[in-house]
UniProtKB/TrEMBL annotation:
Residues 6-66, 172-232 form the HTH asnC-type domain. SMART domains: HTH_ASNC. Keywords: DNA-binding, Transcription, Transcription regulation. It comes from Streptosporangium canum. GO terms for cellular component: cytosol. It comes from the Bacteria. One of its GO terms (molecular function) is sequence-specific DNA binding. Gene3D superfamilies: 3.30.70.920, Winged helix-like DNA-binding domain superfamily/Winged helix DNA-binding domain. It holds the Pfam family AsnC_trans_reg. GO terms for biological process: response to amino acid. This is Transcriptional regulator, AsnC family.
Length: 316
């Protein structure tokens, strides 16, 4: 990624796209009180520098998929190649390198009821250990505040995407299996380009995308390195929580500005969170002051995130 510095307009643009990843630049420009050309130029600059990407993210609950959170402990030197191989798989939604290159955490999306494809991973000569947990539920319904704090309440109201419609499960079609990977790469791809790329008519692509958005089976996330926003430390928090306190503690975590994701899982660690902090001192304060004050956390493991091979989901 080229060196990039974000100014106030960039931050407003990123917040706007987080509210509606496919909002026309003309609409964004009107709310931000700048020209269409300025908004388009700013976005293209960030895209060209590989600093920002709008990616489509499906909601597994509505597409009939299960999510498995998998931890791989890897021999030194093997992490990068394994992480990038996992990132190229269509059934992975999130791949991160942690613990200074000796661990990988990723999410597999599989047909509901099916297991995560762990057998091949366990046979890999550079993987020492494989630990899989079913991700039972996403418990955080807002975005990380570090990238959604640039706009006023009035601007947010003007840009927020339409309210969802029917929340019933949405069976994926042959069109979806072509469309969704294309949108995961570029969530702002124009309809004519999408139609040409996947070999369907523009009208069919437009209609199906609108249906998926209306049902909330498809959302759009803005991928941006928190370091560009002044947050240099990210950490996975593996928490073992008393069952009677799980909901209360999860609710407390989702209200914290440091939190980017909270989910309930199977296994010894029944709650997992991602904390994003200004620096190591801020993470220390969050862990020792904030988390230690929550009654019901019986055990906690912290795993520093060092890099991402694939970002989309959890939608932080």
């Amino acid at each position: 990624m080229d060196s990039v510095t974000l100014d106030s307009l960039d931050l407003e643009l990123l917040h706007a796209l987080q509210l509606d990843g496919r909002a026309p630049f003309s609409r964004v420009a009107e709310v931000l009180d700048v020209s269409d050309r300025t908004v388009a130029r700013r976005y293209e600059r960030l895209r060209a520098a590989d600093a920002v990407r709008v990616a489509a993210v499906t909601d597994s609950r509505r597409t009939g998929h299960a999510e498995w959170l998998v931890r791989l402990r890897v021999l030194p030197g093997g992490c990068s190649a394994i992480a990038h191989a996992l990132a190229r798989r269509p059934d992975t939604a999130w791949v991160t390198v942690a613990s200074s290159g000796t661990e990988i955490a990723c999410i597999f999306r599989v047909t509901d009821g099916g297991p995560a494809p762990l057998e091949a991973l366990a046979r890999h000569p550079q993987i020492r250990d494989v630990d899989a947990h079913r991700l039972l539920r996403h418990l955080m319904d807002r975005r990380w505040l570090g990238r959604t704090s640039a706009l006023t309440a009035e601007q947010i109201s003007a840009l927020r995407s339409p309210a969802p419609g029917d929340a019933a499960p949405v069976p994926l079609t042959d069109l979806d299996r072509r469309l969704l990977p294309a949108l995961a790469i570029d969530g702002r791809a124009a309809y004519p380009a999408l139609a040409k790329q996947i070999g369907w008519s523009e009208s069919a692509v437009r209609r199906r995308l609108e249906e998926l958005r209306r049902s909330r089976a498809l959302q759009f996330d803005v991928e941006v390195d928190p370091a560009l926003l002044g947050f240099s430390v990210q950490c996975l928090l593996w928490l073992t929580v008393a069952p009677s306190r799980l909901t209360t503690i999860a609710r407390s975590l989702t209200a914290d500005p440091e939190t980017a994701f909270v989910g309930a899982t199977t296994g010894a660690h029944n709650l997992v969170a991602i904390a994003v902090c200004r620096d190591a001192d801020a993470l220390y304060t969050y862990v020792t002051d904030r988390l230690s004050s929550l009654t019901g956390i019986e055990r906690m493991e912290t795993t520093p995130i060092t890099s991402y091979a694939k970002r989309a989901a959890p939608a932080s």
